[in-house]
Design a protein that fits this description.
Layout: H1 14-20, E1 23-28, E2 31-36, E3 40-44, E4 53-56, E5 59-64, E6 67-70, E7 78-97, E8 102-120
Antiparallel strand pairs: 1-2, 1-5, 3-8, 4-7, 5-6, 7-8
Amino acid sequence: MPLFFFFSPILPTFAALISIIMLAVVKIAGQQFKVQKDQTLYVPRIAGNAGDKVEFAEVLLSHGDDNLSVGKDVKAVIKAEIIGHLQGDKVIAFKMKRRKGFRKKHGHRTHYTKIRINEIA
């Protein structure tokens, strides 16, 4: 394949593809998530019932409409809807000391909330 094919003006550039999609990085329950409109994701447990609307104001990065804002310049708010609550897979921690008869088994399941991003405003 010739080299000029990659630099053809007909093909959209990466920057042009990114500018079409509105995305944001938001901090939810101490973790950062990259979100887009109509995306569903699993976050650590959030108080509320299924169908409740929630807003996340701690947006770290916002990109869309050919402007990028980072840090304190971000004035965006993420609006989402709680779909439901569920538990993750069981994680088992097993401790054993050989020849001593010491065995300890501990397990837990992390609680998650499934949310749908409705709007990045």
